[in-house]
Amino acid sequence: MAKYVRTATDTDLNAIMTIIEQGRAALAADQIPQWQDGYPRTSDIQQDLDADRAWVLIVDGAVAGYAALLNVADPNYAQIYNGTWDDAQDDHYTSIHRIAIASGYHGPHLADFFFSNLMTLSYQQGFQQIRVDTHLANKRMQHIILKAGFTYRGIVYMDHDADDQRNAYQIKL
């Protein structure tokens, strides 16, 4: 199995949206409300592409995964509850968002490979700290995040919405 990560391009948009829809369906099947309001939309992914923060996982020549790697401070991480960020005043970090693996590629631990590559990309860009969050009910993603070496840091809220609570994680490279 040949696998690698590359910058996503506009020609990948349809494949990425298919993966996002598969992720949305998997979350719905697990009764997790994350992504059930239409987010991420095609316009969100297009913004990632336009900002050069969109990455795809390629397996045997096919787009098998998607993630956004942001290298600016995430306003949703400005306040953390029931915990603290390590080096809380340090806004020099990347954050991983909108990560998903295509439904036909579950099983061979491709999420682990993808996370490892995103950490390498962060380091190559001069960042020694990465943050990520996931819904409280998303046990599968929590397991993947912890297995990648991240530490649980507390609770964050998306867009200051008390109904959109997330577990927040951090790793220092």
Automatic annotation (TrEMBL):
Domain spans labelled N-acetyltransferase: 3-173
Keywords: Transferase
Species annotation: Lactiplantibacillus fabifermentans DSM 21115
Transmembrane segments: none
Superkingdom to which the source organism belongs: Bacteria
Name under which the protein is recorded: Acetyltransferase
Transferase found in the keyword field: yes
Gene Ontology molecular functions: acyltransferase activity, transferring groups other than amino-acyl groups
